[in-house]
Amino acid sequence: MLALEGFFSMQEVAIVSYDPLLLNYQIYKKDVRAQAVYRFIRSPQALFTTTLVVIEFALHFGSECFRNAFEGLGVPVHLVPFLYIPIVVVFAELVPLFLGRRFPHHIARFGVVFLVPLQYLILPFSYLMEKVIKCIFHVLRVKGREDERVLLQREDILLALRENSQLIQVMSSQGILRFETKTFAQLRKMEMKALAKSLHNIPFLFGKMYSAEIAKKLFKVTSAPFLLCFSPSERAPRFLFPAQALLGLPSEGVAFDDLEKSRIILGSYNPFSTSFELSHFLKQKTPFFLISDRQDKIVGWSSLKNFFEEFFGDVSTRYRESGAYSVEKTISGSMQVNQLQREFSISILEAKQESTLNELLQERLGRAPKMGDSYYFEHSRIELTVIEMSKSLGAKTIFLRCIEVDRKHS
Fold first, then answer.
1. What positions belong to coiled-coil segments (predicted)?
2. 15 vs 206, which has greater pLDDT?
């Protein structure tokens, strides 16, 4: 009986502690046990009524069994409570509580098989308790939260991305697999710390410079709900940006000579129509950067491939596993491209073979690039200037700016 009481106490704690984001992902995968756990979470009176009845049953008969056992061992009757209570507290309450909080997913998925049939056995009592609770709410005039959506289904996410461009999206190198909506005020301190901590190890376009301070700025971009997304193997969120970036730029786009609309100067972008496939976008591993206006509103996005295509014409890019590029926002009307651990090979119309940025500048200049060297591309009206050198990489950091725009606004 002690084991029975501890088992159902552990089930109650495990289901309550179940990660809702992982649960939503499992529901999307049509996991039957996850769906049963979800029903208990959505109907807490069924969960607590079922566990309460079984625990009370086990507690009552367990106390009788322990009393008879202690009497058989010759223990005085008045000492039985002093021995029985610590055993119940430790093995039927504290240990199950620890195990249920420590391994909620495994325990809940295992025990829900037993909870479902028991739920139907005590369904009348559970139904009566639900009515009593509603009656108490009505008497106390407490407004329920029946319309609140705790979890988002895949259809809800697609609909939200199509109709609300102010949502915030979290990306990961594995793709977006789990979802939860929260406003900035609803983010718990622990979640903020976990998110900021995870940002240090993410190969985002900002590279290692994508820190907790940058995350806080992104949190303040909009007051709309965030869409937090998690990889299946990690509980900490990866990184985020407004889903307006997914939907693309306004129809007029952002031109090179439009410094008032954009801090990051782009000539191309990837807009999504209302019928875009979210799953296709989530699987892409191509790095991209964001476009923001002067009010720090992120208004669009573009991949690095499109970035180089606009600057150099007919461009093809391929990645080498040994390196990375990062793009970071600098002053208005400029962009800085840093060569980190991943290396891009760029093929342009005027070049005979694929070249890295360092080799490209070397071909244009006719010599090895040095600090301060620059080259102007008439097709894209962009000047590349070397502002940082590396012994192994050559031109490590190249500063890009639109010459004609700068002259126009100077």
1. none
2. 15
**Is 59 a member of any domain?**
yes
Total domains in the chain come to 2
Rounded Cα gap, residues 154 and 277, in angstroms: 12
pLDDT of residue 21: 57
What would the pLDDT profile of 326-362 be if each residue is shown by its tens digit? Answer: 333 332 223 333 333 333 333 222 333 334 556 666 7
Structural domain span for residue 23: 2-140
Q: Predicted confidence band at 80 (pLDDT cuts at 50, 70, 90)?
A: confident
Q: What is the 3-state secondary structure (H, E, C) of the chain?
A: CHHHHHHHHHHHHHHHCCCHHHHHHHHHCCCHHHHHHHHHHHCHHHHHHHHHHHHHHHHHHHHHHHHHHHHHCCCCHHHHHHHHHHHHHHHHHHHHHHHHHHCHHHHHHHHHHHHHHHHHHCHHHHHHHHHHHHHHHHHHCCCCCCCCCCCCCHHHHHHHHHHCCCCEEEECCCCCCEEEEECHHHCCHHHHHHHHHHHCCCCCCCHHHCCHHHHHHHHCCCCCCEEEEECCCCCCCCEEEECHHHHCCCCCCCCCCCCCCCCCCCCCCCCCCCCCCHHHHHCCCCCEEEEECCCCCEEEEEEHHHHHHHHHCCCEEEEECCCCEEEEECCCCEEEEEECCCEEEEECCCCCCCECHHHHHHHHHCCCCCCCCEEEECCCCEEEEEEEEECCCEEEEEEEEEHHHHHHHC
CA distance 280 to 406: 38
Determine the pLDDT at residue 241: 36
Asked if residue 171 is part of any domain, the answer here is no
> Average of pLDDT values for 375-395?
63
Q: Show which of 79, 108, 140 is a domain's final residue.
A: 140
> Is residue 391 in some structural domain?
yes
The mean pLDDT of the chain is 55
Lowest mean pLDDT among 26-30, 174-178, 218-222, 233-237: 174-178
pTM listed for this prediction: 0.38
The answer to whether position 127 is within a domain reads: yes
Would you say residue 123 has pLDDT above 60? yes
- Specify the pLDDT at position 22: 67
Number of CB atoms found within 10 A of residue 375's CB: 16
CA atoms within a 13 Å half-sphere pointing along the CA-CB vector of 380: 25
Decide if 250 contacts 244 (C-beta within 8 A): no
